[in-house]
Design goal:
By secondary structure, the chain is of the alpha+beta class. It has four helices and five strands. The radius of gyration is 50 Å and the shape is rod-shaped.
Length: 241
């Protein structure tokens, strides 16, 4: 008669199966919940970025005109700086040309206050080599001299000075009507003349013209009310036709 051995047999009961299913379901739910949390976080971040994008777009639209204006200003400033560099390079030559043109104008103009005006030109020439002056100061002096010359054309002036007539020198009263007429009258009123620019000489005035010069002298010295003067002119009158 043989022996019979009894071994334990492991069997899966319905309860064990149910527990495993619950655990698997719980693990799956955790993964789903984690995925949902991550999705919600990504969705919130997406909404935040969309809001930031809209805000930046509106801000850009608001700032765009000002940025365009600033860009235009920068372009103009860059162009101005380039032009300034070119101007600074050409400035010494320009200053020299302005002085020489002024000197030529004085030499060709009516002969009034000649020493004073030529002295002004020589002072400008000396300023070109003055190390204590910068370009701005030199240019300002040149422009001031030009303004003074231009003002002569709008002024009525009278002064006493010396008339050089050949070898003779005499003290006379000068009358200048802008750049139209230059006249002189001796203190006794017996002699007078008008400068004729074209031939470059003085021409004698008659009695009536000398009386007109005397009136003009009084007007220039604020001793008489302004009135019309009938005098020959120094500069030739040109017909526009």
């Amino acid at each position: 008669m043989g022996l019979a051995l009894s071994l334990p047999v492991l069997a899966t009961t319905p309860l064990d199966t149910h527990l495993e299913a619950q655990q698997a379901q719980a693990a799956l739910q955790e993964r789903i919940d984690a995925a949902d949390d991550e999705s919600r976080a990504m969705l919130e971040e997406l909404r935040r970025l969309e809001g930031e994008t809209r805000r930046l777009r509106l801000e850009n639209q608001r700032l765009a005109p000002g940025l365009e204006t600033r860009a235009e200003r920068l372009d103009r400033r860059e162009a101005a700086l380039e032009a300034l560099a070119d101007t600074r390079q050409a400035l010494p030559e320009l200053q020299q040309a302005l002085i020489e043109r002024l000197a030529a104008w004085v030499d060709a103009d009516l002969p009034f206050l000649v020493e004073q005006r030529r002295g002004r030109v020589e002072a400008l020439r000396a300023s070109l080599t003055d190390p204590d002056l910068d370009d701005a100061e030199r240019l300002e002096r040149i422009l001031a001299a030009w303004r003074a010359e231009l003002d002569y054309g709008r002024e009525m002036d009278a002064w006493r000075g010396t008339l050089d007539a050949g070898e003779a020198r005499r003290e006379v009263d000068f009358l200048r009507l802008g750049r139209v007429g230059l006249y002189y009258l001796t203190p006794d009123g017996r002699q007078g003349g008008v400068w004729l620019a074209e031939p470059g000489r003085w021409d004698a005035l008659d009695d009536a013209q000398r009386r007109q010069v005397r009136q003009g002298l009084r007007m220039a010295r604020d001793q008489r009310a302004p009135e019309l003067l009938r005098l020959p002119v120094s500069q030739p009158l040109e017909d526009d036709a």
